[in-house]
Design goal:
- It is a single chain.
- Helix content is 47%, strand content 19%.
- It has 173 residues and is α/β, with parallel strands linked by helices.
- Strands 2-1-3-5-4-6 form a six-stranded mixed beta sheet, with helices on both faces.
- The mean pLDDT is 91.
- Helix 2 (56-61) links the parallel strand 1 and strand 2.
Length: 173
């Protein structure tokens, strides 16, 4: 009976150990990337429209109007995705309609026909060494105009000193 109980418990012990080993680093990643995004937008863009593809902490902490480029919180995007119409022209129209002041995205998602409009300028990135819980190590910040590029660059540089260890701000010329 004891041997049978031990054999049956081994998968549970193994799964519990794996969860413990992954959960702690995963929560740290969410803090270093997503939570900082929420703080950043709350400090520099309160009340503005911001376009993101990961809405959680930004919507919770940011005090901003979220334009969800994946579609969970923006029904127009969900509809476009269902019809395979979420392309550059669609994003251009959407971002103009919402007067988005800034976008913060994982670049890998916005490539090919789904790339952001060319009028949007990449201003900077936050980079982590690795990822397990967040989609990618790097989030990129974009601005829609030269004036908003200046504002975003100043905001990113101002916030850089508040980024936690393990996150690096890289300015894009």
């Amino acid at each position: 009976v004891v041997a049978c109980a031990v054999v049956l418990a081994l998968p549970l012990v193994n799964r519990g150990a794996e969860a413990m080993l992954l959960t702690v680093p995963a929560t740290g990643e969410v803090y270093r990337q997503q939570y900082q995004m929420g703080l950043f937008f709350g400090r520099y863009y309160p009340g503005d429209s911001v376009a993101v593809n990961d809405i959680g902490a930004v919507a919770w902490l940011g005090g901003v109007k979220v334009v969800d480029l994946v579609g969970l919180a923006t029904p127009d995007v969900a509809k476009a995705r269902r019809h395979n119409a979420d392309d550059t022209a669609f994003f251009d129209s959407l971002l103009r309609r919402h007067d988005a002041a800034v976008a913060c995205v994982y670049d890998y998602y916005f490539t090919g026909p789904r790339r952001l409009p060319q009028s949007w300028h990449k201003v900077g990135e936050w980079r982590m060494a690795r990822h397990a819980a967040v989609s990618r190590e790097t989030v990129a910040f974009y601005a829609p105009s030269p004036e908003r590029t200046v504002r975003l660059r100043e905001a990113l540089e101002g916030f850089a000193r508040h980024l936690p260890g393990g996150v690096t701000y890289v300015a894009i010329p």
